[in-house]
């Protein structure tokens, strides 16, 4: 085993690797950018090396600096985590040339699987079923369009260098092909610096089922069963589980055999995942699955496999990379129970899952696993840490295990309802709605489920009077000196409430709320709200509200939802909001990629006005209402959160 390793990553995966290394007595070196100087992974590691400014291109993607850091600290091996340099064969070459060990497959294995088109050609030769499509070199639009017609619509255009669901477009009709192709190419170019694509059949009622494989340097390869990652939005995984619901022995046998065959075809060493797309339109059939791609690294959702097999995959990675044989033979690897992983992201589900940023002023996970279940919280942030625009906005992975799917799902729901995040917009309510969805509960999940149920899944019931009253009490300032977060008791010491009625202004989204708070001689509080809300009396409340106060805000938690109330500074000029009307602001920091309207243009509600690229994804900004554009940002402009993108002319009435 190694004496010391360097982890070339950040966030939850860096923390995850450090924990296992520590358990095995391996010393750890973290690397960090400017933005991460005080990050948890830096604190957790035995040593840490600064590798550059915050943008990934100047830090976490700087292979040269990472190798230099490993040499300087005497680390013998580098664990790449996932993302960043984990699937970059040139980096592997750099690492080995420096006399260090790369904890992962060989550069040759990564090259064989690195580009989706070449990988598919290779798998075809190895006898692994592959989605019908065009995987060739030629990229002329006329040729691609004619291939699409041959394959038969709907088709999927995919960046051959793609990952994380980026650079992918489903096309249902030939008329839309060329526009979709440009979009996929633009996104692929921005994310991967390679705009070449492949075109394949869009599989009917698709389920994403992948097989975890593991190989060593002695020619052994095993599988650790499957994971189902069909709960997706924009081709990105949302909740993953193991085993796959409804899996049949015949399909499992066929898929796991194909996966091991794929791994052996490239002499694979280390942890890898073979992703398959399954046509579930007639149930799960052993001849209805096809190879999509191989991820030659540890996968984000590896914990569900660990939960059902009891195997620590990072431990296996370290053992195999240090020259040991696979710790278990195939027959010794057993499946027990059921596990789910929910990815908690800083993002706004109600606005097309726009990534969000912010400081996590309040962060609370369930204290203990729900009864009869096991739980793991995989995170790289603590309360007070920031979600910056530089990196992936994942906050945590909530992983649960139960004796069967129903027990695990119940545990997932409970854990989500006990999770509290304030300071950034998060997707916990969306995850909870998905976990409560009837089709999801029945295990009837295909990759289109979230899209079909999107409206219900992202809808958040407006706050009721009790929630608003709790926020108003907390915002009134009366409790500010009190450490307790319970506003109902926090007010108790304030005798002057007997006589004074306190007025508190709040904002919930666009809605301004005025609350009048008074304390009655019997010690009860009354919060009078304007219509349509009723007066709320503290003694009538069912439970103590869960809430968090943070600068300028109060968040009240109800189930997995967090209701954010802005508490305007009474001294600040109140006409900011007025100035903002009649304009469209950037929902997040980003780059204006494409502008499709000019000043003087009459536009209609919903018309795309520009494309904002942020977090390597393209977001279409559409007109919020009919109007005439007075001013619009320039293409290529770098904008920050809240920058005015479009100003509309005053309506003439
Ligand atoms: P997987 O297939 O492993 O579940 P996805 O395809 O959903 O993963 O997305 C994983 C990708 O997202 C990574 O390859 C990486 O580009 C990015 N990513 C997500 N979270 C992180 C993180 N904490 N650090 C670095 N990259 C991340
Ligand atoms: P990435 O590298 O971005 O993860 P994948 O090729 O793994 O790209 O595809 C991502 C997701 O897109 C899959 O999980 C699946 O939901 C969907 N998908 C991919 N190929 C197809 C297909 N041929 N038919 C239907 N859905 C597909
Ligand atoms: Mg994939």
From TrEMBL:
The keyword Membrane does not apply. The keyword Ligase applies. Its cofactor is biotin. It comes from the Bacteria. Pfam families: Biotin_carb_C, Biotin_carb_N, Biotin_lipoyl, CPSase_L_D2. CDD domains: biotinyl_domain. Keywords: ATP-binding, Biotin, Ligase, Nucleotide-binding. Residues 573-649 form the Lipoyl-binding domain. InterPro entries: ATP-grasp, BC-like_N, Biotin_BS, Biotin_carboxylase_complex, Biotin_carboxylation_dom, Biotin_COase_C, Biotin_lipoyl, CPAse_ATP-bd. Gene3D superfamilies: 2.40.50.100, ATP-grasp fold, B domain. Residues 1-455 form the Biotin carboxylation domain. Residues 120-322 form the ATP-grasp domain. PANTHER family: CARBOXYLASE:PYRUVATE/ACETYL-COA/PROPIONYL-COA CARBOXYLASE, METHYLCROTONOYL-COA CARBOXYLASE SUBUNIT ALPHA, MITOCHONDRIAL-RELATED. This is Acetyl/propionyl/methylcrotonyl-CoA carboxylase subunit alpha. It comes from Mesorhizobium abyssinicae. The lineage of its organism: Bacteria, Pseudomonadati, Pseudomonadota, Alphaproteobacteria, Hyphomicrobiales.
């Amino acid at each position: 085993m190694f004496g010391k390793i360097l982890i070339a990553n950040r966030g939850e995966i860096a923390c995850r690797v450090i924990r296992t290394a520590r358990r095995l007595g391996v010393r750890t070196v973290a690397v960090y950018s400017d933005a991460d100087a005080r990050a948890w992974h830096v604190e957790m590691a035995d040593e840490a090396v600064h590798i550059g400014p915050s943008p990934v291109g100047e830090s976490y993607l700087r292979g040269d600096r990472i190798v230099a850091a490993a040499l300087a600290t005497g680390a013998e091996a580098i664990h790449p985590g996932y993302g960043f340099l984990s699937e970059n064969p040139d980096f592997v070459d750099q690492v080995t040339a420096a006399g260090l060990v790369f904890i992962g497959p060989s550069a040759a294995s990564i090259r064989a699987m690195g580009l989706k088109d070449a990988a598919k050609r290779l798998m075809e030769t190895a006898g692994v079923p592959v989605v019908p499509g065009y995987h060739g070199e030629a990229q002329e639009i006329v040729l691609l369009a004619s291939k699409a017609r041959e394959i038969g619509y709907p088709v999927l255009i995919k960046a051959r260098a793609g990952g994380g669901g980026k650079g992918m477009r489903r096309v249902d009709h030939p008329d839309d092909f060329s526009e979709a192709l440009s979009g996929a190419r633009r996104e692929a170019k921005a994310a991967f610096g390679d705009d070449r694509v492949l075109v394949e059949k869009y599989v009917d009622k698709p389920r994403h089922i992948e097989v975890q494989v593991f190989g060593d340097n002695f020619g052994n390869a095993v599988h650790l069963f499957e994971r189902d990652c069909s709960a997706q939005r924009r081709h990105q995984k949302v909740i993953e589980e193991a085993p796959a619901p409804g899996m049949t022995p015949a399909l499992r046998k066929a898929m796991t055999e194909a996966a091991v065959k794929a791994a052996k075809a490239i002499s694979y060493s280390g942890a890898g995942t073979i992703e398959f797309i399954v046509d579930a339109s007639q149930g799960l059939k052993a001849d209805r699955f096809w190879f999509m791609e191989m991820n030659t690294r540890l996968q984000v959702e590896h914990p569900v496999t660990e939960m059902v097999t009891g195997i620590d995959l990072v431990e296996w990675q370290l053992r195999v990379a240090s020259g040991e044989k696979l710790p278990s033979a195939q027959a010794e690897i057993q499946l027990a129970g059921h596990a789910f992983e929910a990815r908690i992201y800083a993002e706004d589900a109600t606005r097309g899952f726009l990534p969000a940023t912010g400081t996590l002023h309040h962060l609370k996970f369930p204290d203990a696993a729900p009864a009869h279940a096991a739980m793991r919280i995989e995170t790289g942030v603590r309360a007070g840490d920031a979600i910056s625009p530089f990196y992936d906005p994942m906050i945590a992975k909530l992983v649960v295990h139960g004796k069967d799917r129903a027990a695990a799902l119940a545990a997932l729901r409970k854990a989500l309802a006990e999770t509290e995040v304030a300071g950034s917009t998060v997707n916990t309510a969306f995850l909870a709605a998905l976990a409560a969805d009837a089709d999801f509960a029945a295990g009837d999940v295909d990759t289109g489920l979230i899209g079909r149920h999107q409206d219900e899944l992202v809808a958040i019931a407006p706050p009721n009077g009790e929630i608003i009253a709790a926020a108003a009490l907390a915002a009134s300032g009366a409790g500010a000196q009190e450490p307790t977060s319970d506003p109902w008791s926090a007010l108790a010491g304030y005798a002057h409430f007997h006589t004074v009625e306190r007025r508190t202004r709040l904002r919930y989204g666009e809605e301004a709320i005025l609350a009048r708070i008074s304390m009655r001689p019997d010690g009860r509080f009354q919060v009078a709200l304007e219509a349509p809300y009723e007066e709320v009396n503290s003694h009538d409340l069912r439970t103590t509200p869960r809430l968090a106060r943070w600068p300028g805000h109060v968040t009240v938690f109800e189930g997995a939802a967090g209701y954010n109330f802005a508490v305007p500074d009474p001294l600040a000029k109140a006409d900011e909001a007025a100035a903002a009307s009649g304009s469209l602001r950037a929902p997040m920091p980003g780059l204006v990629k494409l502008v499709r309207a000019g000043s003087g243009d009459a536009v209609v509600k919903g018309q795309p006005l520009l494309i904002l690229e942020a977090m390597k994804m393209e977001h279409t900004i559409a007109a919020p209402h009919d109007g005439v554009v007075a001013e619009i940002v320039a293409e290529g402009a770098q904008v920050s959160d809240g920058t005015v993108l479009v100003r509309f002319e005053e309506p003439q009435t």
